What does this fold into?
Amino acid sequence: DRHGPAGRLRRVAHHLLGGGFGVTFLATLAGFVLHKLGQPAPYPWLSAPVIFGTSGGVAMLAGLALMWLRPDPLKTPAMARSDRFLRLQLATLAGTGLALLALRDSPAMGLLLALHLGTVAGAVLCLPFGKLSHGGWRLISLIRAAAAARARLDKARPRAASGRVGTGGER
It folds into this structure.
């Protein structure tokens, strides 16, 4: 089955979670750039860090909720435990960021900022040891698979008299 044993919903959930994570990273980069240009946080509501952070955080939480609704039936108990930890970590990351945004004009902002930055630091420190590290390895394997497929296509193409690989449109 092309959609796997859990179906299309888990695929959508993964895309929401991964895309949301990427968009929140863009929010962090945008905040860094604005800070270096002399505009310190907190940023206006219609600024890149706020828009990217809000949309990314909401997408992450939506993806996590969809994953919770449709668990993977092939998970072993150890894998499920690892997944729960990662999901809790990602939900805390997104939740503290959204709470920080919602309560940025309140006296709780300092505490929430410390909590969110601590969550970010914890996620970064755990990255090489946790389940999220598979993203980099997956990317590498996709690149290798694409290169291998390209090499197979190049072998199958007829060569011109000049020794160059033909594209099919030569005369």
Observations:
- The chain is about 70% helix and 0% strand.
- The mean pLDDT is 86.
